[in-house]
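To whoever is on call:

I kicked off a structure prediction for a single chain this morning and the downstream step that reads the tokens threw a length-mismatch warning. I double-checked the sequence; it's 501 residues and nothing unusual in it as far as I can see. Pasting both halves so you can look.
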Amino acid sequence: MLVDERLWALFKRHWRYTLTYWSVFFSFGLCIAFLGPTILDLRCQTQSTLQQITWVFFSQQFFLLLGSTLGGLFKRTLSSSLSVLCCCTLIISLVFAIIPLCHHVVLLSVALALTGTAMGLIDTIANQQLVKLYQKDSAVFLQALHFFIGLGALVSPLVADPFLAEDSCVLNGNWTTNSSSSSPDLQHLRNTMAGKGTVPHNISHYPLHTEGIITTKVSFAFWIMALINLPIPLAVFILMYHERLLPCFSPSPPLLSRDSLSSTTTTASEKSEQGHGVTFACFNPEKLRGRPPSFFLLHFLGGAILFITDGIIGSYAGFVYTYAVSPPLSMGYKTAGCLDSVFWASITAGRLAFIYLSYRYTATRLLVFSLVGVILVQCMILLLYYSQVFIFIGTCLLGLCISSVFPCLLAYTEDILNYKGCATTVLVTSAGTGEMVMQVAVGSVIHSQGSYTFLLSGVIASFIGFSLFLFLLYVQRIHRNCQPESPKDIDMTEKPMSGDQ
């Protein structure tokens, strides 16, 4: 059969929650991709310099990390998690609506800090709850969850594109003398800044005006995205009402008391842990005293691998255009500008394909395939650095290979640690940190050593990531041997599969 009956039965049992978590990740994806294409129009709207407007990148990314960390500090009850998700998705719609009213760069930075915090909370909580919901079967549903990030990231640039200014969106008295030469430079600058979170190193030579008549129409794009996103908090609210998680609306007890949301049996010790008064019980110092060193090492290694792989994604998306327009490729602005879109589209397609592959194969095999594929593809791009054709082929293959690493590793690590929930927070925060730090590091190396080091950095990072994964497999074996003999401690990394492997 194309779909396993047991998985289908689990999905039918939890479809409301699953679709809710998937939809909030679509909201997350909308926020990821809108800033790069619209940044020049937002510069005009705020009448700020390029150096000033690039601070909004930092504002969003820093508060995304903060939100990811805060997401792990909430009590992992369903009612509190859904309440936070409802508030976060509503905040995203409200911020989209008020961004056109932010006519100063400080106000815009504050608005994007709010979206960053909301994104971080969504990232941690939705991953946590989906893992808690499906446990050993979560890999398939996590792949679908992260597919919706890519879907949202594809939608927002498409919405924004018709409203972006084709020339300077701030007109002043000597506009007629500069208009003829501004369009190519603006197109080049827009592509340079379109990578997620990318801040160009040398942008002072672009003579863009800050005073004059503002002609941008980007406000309509943000209002449209606010309307697209608005049904999502409404859907979360309806789910809470349906499940009687809003005591002010229904005096009846929650439906959860009659129907457990776990796909596996919860032991008595786990129940006592869930009812513990500590906000983040699995990181309670009292509970950590008896843990073997392998427990902490597994968290560290999982976070380190995602630090590397999400860092590769962020740096590649941020600097592939810069590499393509530099020698020896020297591609045209418009052609090179397609590379970033090809990369994100291939990541989205890869996550869609891995939904089925996660059902057929174990997380271990998929991670080995993905990480080895990332190494081989980046080595081929490095060897064929002079080929304009292969940079497109390599970009597509890299996106397909690296797309599944985060959801697979999250499911695999939580599986090893018996779904305590702590790993999700560590992995999500590490991934976001790596994405930000590696972009800065790779950008600095490119600026000082030349564009070729962009490819070399990716290859080195890929080998480090795979080496860390091999070490993770070794530590997992040690950790399994350290556990007491009980049904709960049976190795769950090789889950039973229907079909040949």
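Update from on-call: the warning came from a stale cache, not from the record. Cleared it. Sanity check on the structure: Residues 175-182, 196-201, 262-280, 486-501 have pLDDT under 50 and may be disordered.
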